[in-house]
Amino acid sequence: MTMRAVAIRGHGGPEVLEFGTWPHPMPKPGEAVVAIRAAAVNPADGKWRAGMFAGFAPVSFPHILGYDVAGVVVGGAGLTPGTRVAAMLDPFTKGGYADYVAVAADRLVAIPDGLSFEVAAAVPTAGLTGAQLIERAVDARPGQFVLLTGAVGAVGRFALDAARRRGVEVVAAVRGTRKDEALALGAAQAIALGEDDWSGGPFDHVVDTVGGDAVAALCRHLRPGGRIATAATTPIDPQGLAAIPEFYAVVADAERLGRLLDAVAKGEIAVPIARVMPLEEAAEAQRLTDAGGTGGKIILTP
Ligand SMILES: NC(=O)c1ccc[n+]([C@@H]2O[C@H](COP(=O)([O-])OP(=O)(O)OC[C@H]3O[C@@H](n4cnc5c(N)ncnc54)[C@H](OP(=O)(O)O)[C@@H]3O)[C@@H](O)[C@H]2O)c1
Q1: High-pLDDT (> 90) share of the chain, %
Q2: Is the minimum distance from the CB of 132 to ligand 1 under 6 angstroms?
Q3: Which of 12, 23, 42, 189 has the most CB atoms around it within 10 Å of its CB?
Q4: Torsion angle of alpha carbons 200, 178, 158, 289, nearest 10°?
Q5: pLDDT digits (tens, 9 = 90+) for 77-135
Q6: Mean pLDDT in residue range 52-62
Q7: What average pLDDT does range 192-219 have in this prediction?
Q8: Is 126-247 CATH 3.10.290.10?
Q9: What Pfam families does the record tag this protein with (predicted)?
Q10: CA proximity to 259, closest of 96, 69, 123, 73
Q11: Residue 119: predicted pLDDT
């Protein structure tokens, strides 16, 4: 049996993405088979494609990219066939840019009624990373004062929501054009990253989704004993900072994903979708995501 998928046979630019016919996934014990209705394109997809992680996490070729999916259970272990589900796939094996994927049943979460496959697919990696940055990586406490960079991005807006729910006060560092949006999402203050100086009090923690020199400059306002957690792959120079920036890697958490999907379904967190494109256009979708400035997730539909 075969299916349609987009795979890479080596690292490179978006042109290495190959749309074609691939073997249908065979579930191992404990896995379900999901018919994918929507797969999100994450910034990391282009990094895996380019080989940025090949030194410590080599993949075997051909390799199907994509690890945020929403679809319908069609067989295997776990939930009843026909159940609408979303999942963050194992980032090392992936398989999301495809008609079907075999996924560990304990990663599957039922999609709440009324939530579209496209929006559900946009939630897992961004949502879990944002929530975990606040709740696990820096473990911000009620009343604390946190700098959040990229606060209106996919990860950032979930971090902002997690902070708001904990009673954490957020200073959002965003593009100058998006300060109002950050304030509307619940930031106490907003500054233009790389343009505005910070003259307020010291930050208890820094949560970063951008990286680089402009973030390092703001990290100088971290109070001693505070933490800097970054999800970004652009490093923050630790020179002169009160803490060494620590890279945080998202971990699967089906229970937390379920609560995030519920919050999105209730309209408590907005998840902008920039474009929905057919699976065949995965290379163009990655070009757009790699370039940034999309204002929302790009979703592929098989
Ligand atoms: N470690 C992990 O487990 C993990 C998990 C998920 C994501 N990530 C990483 O986290 C980062 C953010 O992911 P995402 O999905 O949230 O991406 P995203 O949706 O593109 O959000 C990034 C936000 O930061 C903004 N930004 C980027 N460079 C900026 C700059 N120099 N000044 C001001 N704003 C800037 C972007 O604005 P523009 O759109 O205008 O550029 C966007 O609003 C990526 O590097 C991604 O690979 C890591």
Answers
A1: 99
A2: no
A3: 42
A4: -130
A5: 999 999 999 999 999 999 999 999 999 999 999 999 999 999 999 999 999 999 999 99
A6: 95
A7: 97
A8: no
A9: ADH_N, ADH_zinc_N_2
A10: 123
A11: 98
Strands 203-208 and 222-230: parallel
Q: Tell me what pLDDT residue 56 has.
A: 94
Report which of 283, 291, 276 is spatially closest to residue 70, judged by C-alpha positions.
Answer: 276
Distance CA 110, CA 119 (A): 13
Cite the residue boundaries of each domain of the chain with CATH code 3.90.180.10: 2-122+271-301
Kindly give the distance from the C-alpha atom of residue 153 to the centroid of ligand 1, in angstroms, as a whole number. 6
The residues, any chain, with a CB within 8 Å of residue 35's CB and separated by 6 or more, are 71, 72, 73, 74, 99, 100
Section 185-197 average pLDDT:
97
Sequence-distant (≥ 6) Cβ neighbours of residue 145 within 8 angstroms:
168, 169, 171, 201, 202, 203, 204
Cβ of 292 closer than 6 Å to ligand 1, yes or no, is yes
Question: What ligand 1 atom has the least distance to the C-alpha of 152?
Answer: 43
**2-122+271-301 has which CATH code?**
3.90.180.10
